[in-house]
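Late entry, evening session. Most of the bench is empty. Finally got around to the prediction I had been postponing all week. Sequence below, unchanged from the version circulated by S.P.
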Amino acid sequence: MAIISAIRAYFADCPLLTSGAPLGVDFLGDGVGYTVDAYPCDPIYRRYTDGGTIRQFLFDFASREKFGTKTAENMRNSQFYDRLAAWVEQKNLEGTYPELDDGLTPIEMFVVSRGYVEDSGDNTARYVMQFRLLYYQPGYYKAEVI
């Protein structure tokens, strides 16, 4: 399973997400929904002499939410991201991470930036929170070629 797929499955289990709302990858529609989007980075975080590496996977968790002049509604959106950060931190404490391919060992997933409005329209806004997943890849690891 690709790392992005494992991350998507991890967030699909989050009880904070609106039931029935779509959870995509690299796509967020016009209605209320969620997406996990990878973004470019140097994948090698640390290299070991045996060829093993600690790698990083940087990604955004984004949502399309109702948005406008109602302060209470916008505050609920912001509070959702505070609760999402707390949920990920709790999962770290429990040692629960995305299920990566055999041979890859997750180390930690954490928030890089708090949730913020990236783009807004008349009645909706795209909110984004950035994350980093660190994982160990042994020197002998062979990636699946699709």
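Two things to note before I forget:
The chain has a mean pLDDT of 90.
Residues 7 and 98 are 5 Å apart (CA to CA).
Will write this up properly tomorrow.
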